[in-house]
Amino acid sequence: MRVRVVAIRFLLCGLAAFVTYGYAPTAFAGPIEDGDAAFSRSDYSNAARYYKLAADLGDAQGQISLGHMYLLGQGVSQDEGEGVRYYKLAADQGMAIAQHILGLQYFSGGGVPQDYREAARYYKLAADQGLALAQTNLGSMYFNGLGVPKDESQGIRYYKIAADQGYAIAQSLLGSKYFFGQGVTQDYTEAVRYYKLAASQGNADYQSILGAIYSQGLGVPRDYREAARYYKLAADQGNAGAQNSLGVAYDKGLGVPQDYREAVWYYELAASKGNAGAQSNLGLMYAKGYGVPQDYVRAHMWFNLAASLLSGEDGKNAQTNRDVAAKKMTPAQVERAQDMARLCRASNFKLCEPAFKK
């Protein structure tokens, strides 16, 4: 069972994220401000020294900041156990963010023995103070029965509380639950509503999902133009799946004017990130001479790469297309295509002789 717990590690700059939850004005503003200033200029040794001055005098913000330094080994020797100790001092003062981080540590077994019950306890302490991250993680604990009795309805309740605060991960999880009917009655309309809330915050994954939903007409009327719009939003952020899907849209003229060169452009963007579907599609463009000069050597290369990554019918199709291309090539051309595929793969798809400069 794959647990959908959001294990977020904090990379805190100036620790401004802490201010929202539970901070009264600190009596130790001097050391904290000095520590933040040192941290912002990457002077971690002095940052840790200033935070320790405040932490040892009982300042919760200093304790959290120093806990963070120990967790990541910034300015001090990395010591998750010591980081946990400082987080506990802050958590005992009611600091929601410290309680949540302790939940993460107990969930993963970082600096403490793994203990799902203790993780759930700390998540709940933070969730009860309104911390959306903790509410989402607690929802996942209930959904999967980790540290608490399995209760999908309780999991949904916590996701909704976090989603109502605008937390995109909770919104996307609710979108998935409604889409697949997990813990709720399957409802594509409600799934789309939550995915849209998440996508509106600029997350490429959710934008790409919405593109697929509009392309297939699930919970909404099929709308290729809207699908292409969402794919473009995600593709512009580097989402390989969306880049491949947008390539297909230009290839087939779905929601956008048919444009083979534009299709090749997006296929190449996705293929260079290791997207096997895009690699196979790019092979077809070279084999047919669509958007690029016909080139069986490059077609063979891309089919070969795709075949090594794809399985099932897609993998067989890529192999078949590669073999068809090989029959139209000389032995020297086949050998060159194989060498190109090896170089492309070894360079993590960076040296693949693209048609267009990125």
Biggest sheet: strands, sense, closure? none
The backbone outline, from C-alpha atoms, is: globular
Roughly what percent helix?
Answer: 55-70%
Given as residue ranges, the uncertain stretches (5+ residues, pLDDT < 50) are: 1-25
Number of strands: 0
Instruction: Encode the helix/strand succession as letters.
Output: HHHHHHHHHHHHHHHHHH
Relative strand content:
under 5%
The average pLDDT value, as a whole number, equals 91
List descriptors.
18 helices, mainly alpha, 65% helix, single chain, 358 residues, globular
How would you sum up this structure, described in words?
The chain has 358 residues and is mostly helical. It is 65% helix and 0% strand. The chain is built from 18 helices and no strands. It has helices at residues 29-40, 44-56, 60-72, 80-91, 96-108, 116-127, 132-144, 152-163, 168-180, 188-199, 204-216, 224-235, 240-252, 260-271, 276-288, 296-309, 312-326, 331-346. Helix 1 (29-40) runs antiparallel to helix 2 (44-56). Residues 1-25 have low confidence and may be disordered.
